[in-house]
Amino acid sequence: MLMIAPSILAADFAKLGEEIRSAEAAGADWIHIDIMDNHFVPNLTFGAPVVKAVRSATALTFDVHLMTERPETLFPAMVDAGADRLTVHAEACVHLHRTVHQIRELGLPAGVALNPHTPLAVLDHVLEDIDLLLIMTVNPGFGGQSFIPGMLPKIRELRSRLNALGRPDVHIQVDGGITDETAPLVREAGANVLVAGSYFFGHSDRRQAVASLKA
Ligand code: DX5
Ligand code: ZN
Fold it and tell me: In the predicted model, what is the mean pLDDT of the chain?
């Protein structure tokens, strides 16, 4: 099932609750929340108190993308703040298998993200424990970057691996540079959860933005 997850990184932070309500009204499926620590990525966003503050704005799934070192140190606060799912970067986790299990022990579905240069092979021994793989289609850290077309074969390969493993249910999420032009390409390659920051929040008609990503 195709889902659209607007990334609030591109929202107006001065009225974040309103922006989230607008995403829900536009037909968004999940709200994508980018947590950056200025160590794993060269940018800093916000933490659990902000997530908690906007939790009451919507009942939609809060899809938390942790671009941080030692992401496990944030899990309890994120769960308390109302995160519905947590995605960690394979590159940030020395003990990825343990980290994925920590998420599951908290009762949340676990996602693993891969930077553009990280091979799919790092997933081999955790695939059965996760329900979402995030293929970064830009280098993480900033919104508004250009989509990296070389990620299309990676998405295709991941989808065929999942099919071969009998796991067509695992979500393939893409994040970075998703627009009405790149959405058909990633969908054709096998992605089913599309994160969109600038395209969605920069669109004059957000309902139309969701419709064109789903078209
Ligand atoms: C990038 C973040 C993205 C970002 C995408 O590191 O993970 O979620 O908001 O922004 P756009 O859609 O503008 O590329
Ligand atoms: Zn993200």
Answer: 98
Indicate whether this model's pTM tops 0.85.
yes
Quickly count: other Cβ atoms within 10 Å of residue 89's Cβ: 25
Tell me, what CATH number does 90's domain have? 3.20.20.70
Span 71-126, pLDDT tens digits:
999 999 999 999 999 999 999 999 999 999 999 999 999 999 999 999 999 999 99
Q: Is the CB of 196 under 6 A from ligand 1?
A: yes
The structural domain count of the chain equals 1
| 63 bridge partner residues | 32, 85
Beta-strand (E) ranges in the chain?
3-6, 30-36, 61-67, 85-89, 110-114, 132-136, 171-175, 193-196
Q: Which two tokens stand for residue 32?
A: 């994508």
Tell me which residue range forms the domain holding 52: 3-214
Residues with a catalytic annotation lie at: 34, 175
Q: How far is the CA of 34 from the centre of ligand 1 (A)?
A: 8
